Amino acid sequence: MRREGSPWTGLWAVFFKEMADHLTGLRMRILEGLILLSALAAVYTGTQTLRQTVGEDPYLYLRLLTTAQDPLPSFVGFLSFFVPLAAIALAFDAVNGEYARGTLSRILSQPIYRDALLFGKFLAGLGTLAVLLTALFLLVVGLGLFTLGVPPGGEEMARAFLFLLATLAYAGFWLALGLLFSVLFRQPATAALAAIGVWLFFAVFFPILTDLAANALLLQADPLDPESQLRQASLALWISRLSPNTLYAETLTAVLNPAVRSLGPILITQLEGAVLGTPLPLSQSLLLIWPQLTGLMALVILLFTLAYVAFQRQEVRA
What we know:
- The chain is an all-alpha fold.
- The chain contains twelve helices and no strands.
- Helix 1 (11-24) packs across helix 7 and helix 4 runs parallel beside helix 8.
- It is globular.
């Protein structure tokens, strides 16, 4: 017999309980420490490099996020590596962990629907990552303000907000993937290994397969023909955009580098009337990244929908 009331009954109870567990858990403390130390090291080296350009570069704080110095990568490079791992760590045992502890049937016997349970767990993970990313960003801005001695401009802060939004959407993809595997696999270790395997595939193997697929699909490509090479490069680019890593990287490229005018092969006709090196307005950069940002959000919705459907079809026994 179906219980009366909204299917979202208990959503906020699950959200606040899960978020409290995430923020106070040892797993999250370890991840926070690793991300914090890595980010501070990258930002410190960036501020030392950018001190000489104070007053010359109008986007000093954007350069602070993207400047790398051997052997340390940039702040953005650290986030690109750690954010997927943090998201997977928060979600790989979200559902199967309840199965393993034998608490899922007891939770659902309360006035809490499956809809509210799954959505509350996802929102709690996303909220935890949002708190972590916002705190890190404010720390970076504070360190830059203390070291460089100049405040950020309004457009810089707007672009930084878009950077946080894109990073949160990228984290949401891996969070939804971990949640999906947590529903599909009853063993948390199996779900974690499957999610990390997908991350390694997109990070290491997918760029190699992209070029191979483009070469295989264009069998008649002439290496001496510029048009043939352009078609092959365009095809490889479109295939690579099936990866969330590519969508995220292209979004950050346009947001954090206002001089970028295209995210694909640049033709001479695209540069007519343009002054090279002139930064684009924020509205034009937003139009440039809108397909990538929308694609990331669509992937998040798709994965969460698959997890939702799979969870609704599972049998829960006491």
